[in-house]
Amino acid sequence: MIFLPMGIVSAVVLVFLVKKTESRKRKRRTVIGYLLASPFAYIGSLFGGLMSPQLAGVFIFGTVPLVLGTALGYKVRVLNEVMNVRISVLPKTSLGRWSVGFAIAWILFFVLSEVILGPGPNYNMVLAYGLTTVDTAIAVAAFVTGLIGIIKNKERSVFVFLATAIGLYGLIGGASSLFGLA
Hints:
Shape: flat
Strand content: under 5%
Number of helices: 6
Structural class: mainly alpha
Order of helices and strands: HHHHHH
Largest sheet: none
Distance between the termini: 21 Å
Radius of gyration: 17 Å
């Protein structure tokens, strides 16, 4: 029952955007955006349920990646047409590469932190705050470098967009954990 609202909202957005478009190519891109965002949504919904109140955590951390992925898949073609910009997969600027590197480092450090702390409430609180602080700092670095690369350097890479979203996700989760909101 906890995952039902996430599934309903993301399915409604997906069906709405697929029905709204007439182009097969755009429908395909919308579904691909949804599928690419699915692993992040599933991981987010699992960790969101553990880090914050179950229903809110699952809904926010699970629905947001799915809706954003679906919307980005839908809008990729529109962005190309409106801005006449070629969107690449790999980053072209050094800030873009740094952002992707920070996002990968955040994922690895997050998993390492979870392994070090272990399950249950019997972990060292000082170590937990230290690891969360470092993890949040890495997420801020991924978010800020990605955002600067996108705005200032006109970086248009799928990986940089994804790294920026991962950085924002880590920033929100780390800040909520550090400030006692989770």
